[in-house]
Write a structure and sequence with these properties.
2 copies of one chain form a homodimer.
Chain A (H helix, E strand, L loop, with lengths): L1 H10 L2 H4 L8 E4 L5 H10 L5 H4 L29 H15 L5 E6 L6 H12 L5 E6 L8 H4 L5 H7 L3 E6 L3 H12 L5 E6 L11 H6 L14 H21 L42 H15 L3 E5 L9 H6 L4 E3 L4 H13 L3 E7 H7 L1 H9 L5 E5 L17 H5 L5 E4 L4 H14 L3 E5 L23 E4 L4 E5 L1 H17 L4 E5 L8 H7 L6 E4 L8 H9 L4 E4 L10 H7 L4 H13 L1
Parallel strand pairs in A: 1-2, 2-3, 3-5, 4-5, 6-7, 6-8, 8-9, 9-11, 10-11, 13-14, 13-15, 15-16
Antiparallel strand pairs in A: 12-14
C-alpha cells in the first residue's frame, strides 16, 4: 500500500494525465491478488467510483483480480509471473510509437519462483528496455516464509547477474522509496527496486513477524476476509493512528459512514451462504462437505497401501488439502513453490524411477502453465496423478485468472490421460483410490475447492468403474448429464422446477469426462426424449463433446460457461451464465416445448 | 560428443551396471536434438543395435528426439528447458528409494533462455539435491550467436547466484573435463559444469568460428543433413584425422562399410520425395509450394498496409519464414529467444498499447508452453495473431516433441480465439490478411512447415469468410472434410481410389477449425450419405468435434492421429496412423459398405 500510494501521489504522472492518455505512466501489479489495495488508491483519486468500489468480487463490481475493463487497471493478472514480460511489451510499444510515460510493475517475492520472471529479466536486459520493477519483498508466501518454500538467495546478486540495475529500499518509508526511484531514474535499461516490506503492515497482529510468532510460524492473513473481531480490532487500530496523526497536524479526525448498512455487502467467501435469486432465500447452503477433503483424507489413507505414493505441492498446501499429508509424512512430500513447470517435470523424473507422484495446484495454473510438461511426461508412459483444484466456475469471486473452465479441453486430447471429476467427498476418495491403485493411465482429478452446495448421495452399490456414472434422480421425459457438486446441485434444482411444470428430468452424474462406457451411456439415455449436458467448464472440450463422440446420431444440447467466467458470488455467476437451476429449467423447458 | 564420450567411457558407471539397473548412473540431454550423437555412443557400447541405429528418424528406428522406449534413453526431451527439473525428480527418487547412481543432465546455452531452467536451478538448490548439470556452451543457437538472440551475461555469476556450485571446463579436453568433474564430485547439493565448446567441432568448415565467418554470421549446420559434398568432405576430414591417430599408436586404419548400399537410408527430410507404400513410386511429391511461405510473404506485404503490425520470434526465424521480415523491417521485429512465455506476454503488452503482434513459434511449443499466457492475453480482449508453425503430423522425423497434434484442442475453448489452417500458400496469405485486417478476435494460424505434397487449388471465386470453406473435389455419395495441404492431399488420394471402386467422395476443405457457418456446412453435406473428417490432429478437440457441435443429429466419423504421433518419414507416419490415402479409402469403404 505504501508503495502504491507513493507511486500514484508522487512518483507517477497519472493524476495529471489521467488514465486514458497514450502518454500516461503505467503501473500494474504482476501479483494481482493485491488489487483491492490498488482499488482503494484509484477510488481515492476518483478513478473508480464508490458504488463499484463497494462491490468487491461481486458481479458488476470490482473483480477479485485485475481486469482492464476497470478504469485505471492496466493489465490483467492473477496467475503469477507474467508482469515483467507484459511491462516489457508496454515499454517497447511506447518507445516504438514515440509515446511518453514510464512503466512500473510490482512483483511479489514468492512470485520470483516462476520461471517466466527470469525469461523477462533476461530479455529485457538484452533488449535494453527501460522499465522499473519493484519487488514487494515481504518474505512471506501464502502462509509460510519464502525461505521455507524456495529460498531466493542473494536477491541483489541474482538480479544484478541478469544485467538489471538494482536499488533497495525500505518499502514503507517514503523518503527511502523516493531515493530508490531517483537511484534508477537515469538508467537507460531495466531497473529493479527491492522493497523490504512487512506483510500486514499497519495492523499490529497482522504484521508478519508478530503474526508468524503467534501462529506457529504460519501466516494466516494472506487470503480471505478477516473475521469480524479481527476486522474490528484492525480497523480501530488503523483509525486511531490516523486520527492521532490528523490531530497533530491540526485537522479534525476522519469521518466514515457504514457502507454495510445497505445490505449489499454480504460476505461472498466460498463457504458462505449466498443469496438466492430473490435476494433472500439461501440457495447454495453449505453442508460443510468438501469434495477436496475426501481427496486429502484418501491421500493419507493411500500412503500406507502404496509406498510409492509421493505428493508435490506448488505453495497451495492448505487449499489443496495436502497440509496434513505434509505434516504426517514429510519425507514423502515435496514443496516445490510457485514453480508449476518444474513441479510437473520433477514428477516426471520421480515417475520414471518407480514412484507415483500426485501433483497439486489449481486447475487453471496446472493444466495451462505446465501443459507442455504434462504432455512430455505422458510421452514417457509413466503414471502421474494431477490433482486439479479449484476446478470450474465457483467460487467466482477471484475471477477468471483462477476460475478454471478450460482444463478438461487442455488435457482431453492426451491419449493416456483420464479426466475425472468427483461429485462428493466420498466419490473423491473412490476416484483417487482408482487413480492410484487401478489406473494404468495418467489421471487428472478435477476438484471443486469450495463446500458442496448439497451432498450428492453416491449409491452404496456404485462401483468406480471406467466410464460409468450413475443416476442421481430418476426421470422419464429427458435426461441431463452433469458432474461435480456445483452443477449437479443446479441440475437437481432444475429438475425440481421442471417437475412442478410437468416435465420429468432424469439427472445423471458422469464423473468421467473423456472416457465413456457406451453400454452404460445407452442405459442412461434409455427411454427419454432429449439429452442435455451442463458443464462446469466451457461448452467446448469437455463432457458434451465426449458424449457426442460416443453417441453418434443423438443430438445433445450443452449448457456451458460461455465467454470468460464471470466474477461475482456463486449465485450471480451461475445466473449470469444461465447455469443456475432456474435458468437451466427455463432453457430446458424452452427447448423441449419447441 | 566429447562430453558424452567422456561420460560413458570414463565418468559414469553405465558400462558396468548396464542401462537397466535401478542403481545405474543416469545421463540424458535436455536439448534432445543432440540425440544422434548419443545414439552413436550407445551403439558403440552395444546398447543400441546396428539395424535400429541405421534407421534414424524412420519408423521402427530411432526417434528424432529421445524416447525412453529406446534402450539407454533416460528421458524424453525435445522441447527445451525441462532437463534440470526432470533430473531433480530422478535424483530425489534415487535418494528416497535408497538407490545408488549419479544424475547428470546436459543443457544447451540457448536453452538457458527458457524460464523453467531457473525454476529448476532455484528449487534444486533449496531442496539440496545432488545432481550435475553440464552446459554445452557453444555460444550459437539455431543459426545465430547466443549473444545476438538473448545474451546470457556472466554465466558463472548467474549460476552461483542461484546457489549452485560452478565449475568450468574446455568441453573438448578430456583432462579438463575430468578435472571439472573432480571439482564438483564432493559437493552435496547441485553443481553445474560450464563446458566451453565449439559447435561443429572436428570438421573445419563446420566449427562455428569458421562457419560464422564464412556465412555472414549465420551458422548453417544446426539442423538437417548436410548436402552430399559437405558430407563427403566432412567424412574425409574426420576419417583422415582418426587414421593418422591410429597410425601413431600402431593399429591399422579404421574399416567401414557403406550402409547406404541396402537402400534403406533414403533421406527423409521434409522436402524430399518419400517412397510410396510399394516402396517405389514417389507419393508425396514436392511441388515446392510452402504454405508458410505465403504467410511470410504476406507479412511483408501487410507491413505497409498496417503500420501497427509487429512480428515476434522465438529463435525460429527461418523455420517460421520471418527472417526476411526481420531483415527488411528490423524496427518492427522482436527476437525474443527461446522464451515463449515471455514472448507471448510481451505481445500482450504490445497489443494493449495499440499494436498488432504476430507471434511465431512451433505450434507444439507456442500453444502448450505459453498456454496460460495466451489465455491471459485473451482476457484483455486485445487482438494478437499466433502463427503456429509445424502444425500437424508431418514432418514426422523429429518426433512427438515437435509434431503438433493437440494445438487446436489447446486453443479452441478460448472464447475469442479463431483457429484457422490454410491449405496453400495462397490461402495462407488470405488467412493472414483476414486475421490482421478483418478479424476482431485473436487468431491462431496453423501452418504446415514442409512443402505441400500437391498444390490445393483455391477457387478464384473463394472469399475468405468466417466459417466457410470450399469443395475441392465434387462427389455425390459421401463427403470427407479435411484441412491443410497434407491431409487434403491424402483425402484426394483416397477419393481417387474410391472412385475406382465406384464410390464418389466429395472432398471439402474447411480451414476454420472452431468456427462454422452452418449454412455453408449444410450446403457442403447436401445430398450425400455419410460424413467423414480427417484431422491433421488428434481425433479429440479439432474439426470433427466442431462439426459435431454444429451439426446436431448427423453422425460424423473422424479419422485423427490416435495415440502419440509416430516418428518416421511422411509415408510411414501417415500409414501407421491409417491416414494415408489408401488407408483412408479402405476405412471409408469399409464404413459405407456396412
Amino acid at each position: 500500500m505504501d508503495l502504491v500510494v507513493w507511486l500514484y501521489y508522487h512518483e507517477l504522472d497519472i493524476r495529471r494525465t489521467g488514465v486514458a492518455s497514450p502518454d500516461r505512466d503505467i503501473y500494474f501489479s504482476s501479483k494481482g491478488h493485491d488489487v483491492p489495495g490498488l482499488y482503494a488508491v484509484l477510488y481515492s483519486l476518483g478513478i473508480v467510483d464508490e458504488s463499484r468500489f463497494l462491490k468487491l468480487r461481486r458481479y458488476g463490481g470490482l473483480d477479485g483480480h485485475p481486469d482492464v475493463g476497470v478504469a485505471g487497471i492496466e493489465a490483467n493478472s492473477g496467475s503469477l509471473g507474467m508482469g515483467i514480460s507484459k511491462a516489457k511489451g508496454i515499454a517497447w510499444a511506447k518507445r516504438f510509437l514515440g509515446r511518453r510515460g514510464r512503466v512500473v510493475v510490482l512483483l511479489g517475492d514468492g512470485e520470483l519462483q516462476e520461471g517466466q520472471i527470469y525469461e523477462g529479466l533476461q530479455t529485457a536486459a538484452h533488449q535494453n528496455i527501460k522499465l522499473t520493477a519493484i519487488i514487494d519483498h515481504n518474505k512471506v508466501q501464502s502462509d509460510k516464509p519464502v525461505d521455507e518454500i524456495t529460498r531466493l538467495g542473494d536477491l541483489n546478486a541474482k538480479l544484478s547477474a541478469f544485467g538489471w540495475k538494482v536499488a533497495r529500499t525500505d518499502g514503507h518509508d517514503f523518503a527511502s522509496i523516493s531515493a530508490a526511484f531517483r537511484d534508477v531514474a537515469d538508467h537507460e535499461g531495466p531497473s529493479v527496486i527491492i522493497a523490504d516490506t512487512i506483510k500486514g503492515r499497519g495492523v499490529s497482529f497482522m504484521e508478519h513477524p508478530e503474526a508468524l510468532r503467534s501462529n506457529h510460524g504460519k501466516y494466516r492473513w494472506h487470503a480471505g476476509a478477516p473475521d469480524d473481531a479481527s476486522y474490528t480490532a484492525a480497523y480501530a487500530e488503523i483509525r486511531e493512528r490516523i486520527d492521532a496523526r490528523l490531530l497533530t497536524i491540526g485537522t479534525g479526525t476522519i469521518e466514515s459512514h457504514d457502507a454495510l448498512e445497505d445490505g449489499s455487502l454480504v460476505s461472498t467467501l466460498a463457504g458462505d451462504v449466498a443469496l438466492g435469486e430473490d435476494g433472500v432465500a439461501p440457495r447454495l447452503t453449505s453442508v460443510a462437505e468438501y469434495t477436496a477433503q475426501g481427496y486429502g483424507d484418501a491421500l493419507i489413507e493411500l500412503a500406507d497401501e502404496c509406498p510409492e505414493l509421493v505428493v508435490l505441492d506448488g505453495d497451495l498446501a492448505i487449499d489443496c488439502r495436502v497440509r496434513r499429508f505434509e505434516e504426517l509424512l514429510p519425507a514423502r512430500f515435496i514443496e516445490d513453490g510457485i514453480s508449476e513447470q518444474d513441479m510437473v517435470s520433477m514428477a516426471g523424473g520421480l515417475a520414471r524411477h518407480g514412484l507415483i507422484p500426485v501433483v497439486n495446484s489449481f486447475a487453471s495454473f496446472l493444466t495451462s502453465r505446465a501443459n507442455e510438461q504434462i504432455y512430455n511426461n505422458a510421452t514417457e508412459r509413466t503414471k502421474i496423478i494431477y490433482a486439479c483444484h479449484y476446478a470450474g466456475l465457483i467460487p467466482a469471486g477471484p475471477g477468471k485468472s483462477h476460475q478454471s473452465i478450460r482444463d478438461v479441453s487442455l488435457l482431453a486430447a492426451l491419449p493416456n490421460m483420464i479426466v475425472i471429476q468427483p461429485a462428493s467427498s466420498r466419490e473423491a476418495r473412490l476416484a483417487l483410490r482408482w487413480a492410484v491403485l487401478e489406473s494404468r493411465d495418467n489421471c487428472a482429478l478435477r476438484l471443486v475447492i469450495g463446500p458442496s452446495p448439497r451432498t450428492i448421495d453416491t449409491p452404496a452399490t456404485f462401483k468406480f468403474e471406467l466410464g460409468r456414472g450413475y443416476t442421481v434422480l430418476e426421470g422419464s421425459d429427458h435426461v441431463l448429464f452433469a458432474y461435480g457438486p456445483v452443477m449437479l446441485n443446479e441440475a437437481l434444482l432444475a429438475a425440481e422446477r421442471l417437475a412442478a411444470r410437468g416435465i420429468s428430468l432424469r439427472v445423471v452424474n458422469c464423473p468421467w469426462l473423456n472416457r465413456t462406457d457406451v453400454r452404460w451411456l445407452d442405459e442412461s439415455i434409455a427411454n427419454v426424449g432429449k439429452i442435455f449436458v451442463v458443464e462446469d467448464h466451457a461448452p467446448i472440450g469437455a463432457l458434451g463433446d465426449q458424449l457426442r463422440r460416443s453417441l453418434g446420431r443423438r443430438e445433445i444440447r450443452v449448457f456451458g460457461v460461455e465467454g470468460f467466467p464471470a466474477c461475482g458470488n456463486p449465485a450471480e455467476a451461475l445466473k449470469v451464465h444461465g447455469l443456475d437451476g432456474a435458468s437451466l429449467a427455463a432453457r430446458i423447458e424452452e427447448d423441449v416445448r419447441t
